[in-house]
Structure formats: structure tokens, C-alpha cells
Automatic annotation (TrEMBL):
This is Uncharacterized protein. Residues 101-116 have a biased composition (Basic and acidic residues). Residues 90-128 are annotated as: Disordered.
Length: 128
């Protein structure tokens, strides 16, 4: 996947569109919430199916399905170390109750993942 490119909504909020592993259209968008900084993240269309066999299902017009997470900066900050570990190792914490340390994330040189210069440059000596 290429790095996201951002555009502006009609109301001036930054957003990016991309596809997940299954080809579902997804987006990351700055929220218009006035009281806190927040983002929307997730699939844009739930693409409901009914079955089996699974066939497209048109939702009634009076049904609303929320498909995107509405995340505060604090929530993003809380899950970011786990996502960074996943990028570095392909794994999430495996021990029950384990938390990822914010001050000692997995370093790229400890991983099998091939790192490009841009990602490697994000890891400074403060993590050594």
C-alpha cells in the first residue's frame, strides 16, 4: 500500500481514502467535533450480506450502521504503541494483560521486516 495522500472535505477537514486487504473502501478523516481533537477511521460501507449463500443485502432506509471508529487523540495515543509493534514485528502483545511500553518500542534492527530509510529514520537513539 502506498502512503496515504490527503485531500480536504467540502468543509475543509483532511481525509485520506484507501482499501483494506479485502478491497473494502476505507478512510481516515479529521473529525469536525468542536469539543475535542478526533479522527474517524474505518470502512466507509459495511457491504452487508445475507445468507448463506452470502448475497448482497440492501439495508432498510431506516437502518443506520456505524462503520468507522471515532477516536480521540488520547485513544490513538493509547493504541499507537501496539500498532508500532505490529509494524515492526507483525505481532501484537501476546501475553494476557501485556501492555506495550511507550518508552521502549520494538526497534527495527531487532526485526525481520525490511525497513526503508524513511521508517528507520523515525527510530532515534532514545530507544536504544
Amino acid at each position: 500500500m502506498d502512503r496515504p495522500t490527503f485531500k480536504k472535505t467540502e468543509r475543509g477537514f483532511a481525509y485520506s481514502e484507501f482499501e483494506d486487504l479485502y478491497g473494502a473502501k476505507c478512510s481516515l478523516q479529521k473529525s469536525s467535533l468542536a469539543t475535542d481533537d478526533a479522527v474517524w477511521l474505518g470502512i466507509d460501507d459495511p457491504d452487508p450480506k445475507r445468507g448463506p449463500p452470502w448475497k448482497p443485502y440492501k439495508l432498510p432506509s431506516d437502518v443506520l450502521v456505524t462503520t468507522r471508529m471515532h477516536l480521540s487523540r488520547e485513544q490513538v495515543e493509547a493504541i499507537l504503541p501496539a500498532l508500532q509493534r505490529f509494524v515492526a514485528t507483525g505481532e501484537l502483545p501476546e501475553q494476557e494483560g501485556e501492555q506495550v511500553s511507550e518508552d521502549k518500542p520494538t526497534k527495527p534492527e531487532e526485526c525481520d521486516h525490511e525497513w526503508d530509510a524513511e521508517i528507520s529514520s523515525m527510530w532515534s537513539n532514545e530507544y536504544v
